[in-house]
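Troubleshooting entry. Yesterday's outputs looked truncated, so today I'm pasting the complete records for two proteins to confirm everything comes through intact. If either block looks cut off, that's the bug. Protein one:
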Amino acid sequence: MNEEIQGQADSKPLLTIAIPTYNRAIYLRELLSVLFDQLIAEPRVELIISDNASPDETPSLVEEFQNRGLKIRSIRNETNIGADGNFLQCFERARGKYFWLFGDDDIVVQGGVDTVLSLLERKDHNLVYVNSFPLEDSHRSGISQVKINAIEMQNAKSFASRVHIFFTFISGNIINKERVLRKNQFPFAELLGTNLIQLGWTYAALNDFESGLFISDKLIGARVNNTGGYKLLESFGPTLKAVTDHWLRDEHLRRIIYNGTLQRFWPGMLLQYKHSANTFSSEATPNFVLTPLFRRNLRYWTFVYPMIVLPHSLAVCWLLLVRIVNRIDRACGLVLLR
């Protein structure tokens, strides 16, 4: 592993933005381009790029932005240590009080970083969640409103009811690393190979939750249909359940995560499965994987199982109904997730 530290200040950064990357120079260029103006004169942020031995032009791309004046702490692995290994490396090397692991194919809208920093400076939080929009061929230019919609919560269950399955979305979650490291936790390396290692420090922050911030404004563009090749059924079925059961102490919090996965994640993903058989082509059938895990949960039979057994046309109609229920759920204070 080679590490290059460029322009690192002596003082501790408020926030580390860490970008693990592998062979995605085209997306990384877009991300660095939208970060450039936001970070070029921003002393409160440490920017890390951890390159997992990419065979493409990623090293020259990083050097290009460094030469343009962007302060980047560049790490290049001699061999590919896997996505989880690269995520863990980012967490361990981050110097900031807050840690923001950010997907190399996502973006932050113009003004988004400054908005997040201003909120982080006001009060300490264990967790901050930043809302997102689907990123396809184009993205939003920046923040237009003056007032930022951010909801502060002191109740872990209320916070989890808003985030639930999206605790797995790396670009949406900002962790107070200082608070996480004060507590005795399981070694995060235990989660290597799960494709969900980020839940280690996220659940650690949730276990000792005192305060959280949910930023409702959509400051992140999340790339659609770009999962990176891991097995969705395995990762968001048995692996997610095993990790949540072991790492999250509160049974009520665990139930919120499962309910959010069943009600908000799987219906749409299963429609994609029906539309394209290649989505889970290397895995067992959804019925075989998911039914044993969630057969005692009413939401499985209400929101998920119909998507598995109904023909495509009826599944489309069922998904529309599910989305209506979810909108009512959100409008009523997320009652159904609790």
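Protein two, checking that the full record survives here as well:
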Amino acid sequence: MKRFLQQLLSCISIFFLLFSSACNRGRGRVLEVAYVSGVQVTLRDHVAAVYEKAGVVKNGDRVEVLDHDRRFVRVRTADGATGWMEQRYLVSQEVFDQIQKLTADNQNDPVQARGATRNDTNLHVEPGRDTEHLYQISAGEKLSLLKRDTAEKPGAVAALSRAAKPGSKKNEQDGKPVPVIEDWWLVRDSHNRVGWVLARMIDLDVPLDVAQYAEGQRIVAFFVLNQVQDGDKKVAQYLTVLTEPKDGLPFDFNQIRVFTWNVKRHRYETAYRERMEGVLPVTVSQENFEKEGILPSFVIRVKDDNGNVAERKYKLNTPIVRRVLAPGEQPVRTVSRKSKRRR
């Protein structure tokens, strides 16, 4: 009898241990680590239409996932608060690592332009509206623009032109509608985070003095080459990089213009213009040219007909811009123009 009671108590103990383990499964054990992609999300004490607020998590917060329930997950925050939130407001450790890698890999990239966001927008890990994102950037956020790329707009096709007929090769490829291609910028935000942003969500901070002479073209990048003294003030001289005003082009820009300041007439003039199929980045520096002294120089990367990219260096000895040939390099005929008329 005594042995029977011992066996019964042992079975009861095992039953309670198993029951307790089942009840606590997922309650304290960390299933995975995730990050909050929403701007601000309320934690619920339980999953129901009526609930108590258990806490708040914000964009970029790291949380530990403790349990899953359909579209909700139970999380624990860094300060120990626990609660339920919708799964759609979380991204994985992998996405966080991708953003970290983007930031590290592009930390020293030359800035091509500066701008600000038109609206609240997302910082994506790759170009494309359907790609993963973690951080959200507020409207008016200042950005440094680093690289350009393109991606198809999901669910959109190019509209038929008036001159083209439905089904023509001009509007279809291999029997399929032509997709809409959008421009994207790799940017660095004010928190030093790097990611991809839809280009049309960014307004470039192009100086009005030169922006007004874009002549219907889109200014892609701009650089201060140097400054000249005009009376009691210093005035910047600029290199601008332009392209056609549309997305999806196979090059980053197709024209460069240098604006110099005419001290006598107190106005900007186009000192140099050249057309080419160019790719970013453009780099600007100061260089010692012996007898001419230290002058601003810049390097443009140009595509040839075979898609090969070569570098071209230029120097500005105000108001003249000239090519700087590398040892053994032969001069090539370019479409360029020097102009002294008002711009």
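Both blocks look complete. Sanity check on protein two: The helical segments are 2-23, 93-105, 208-211.
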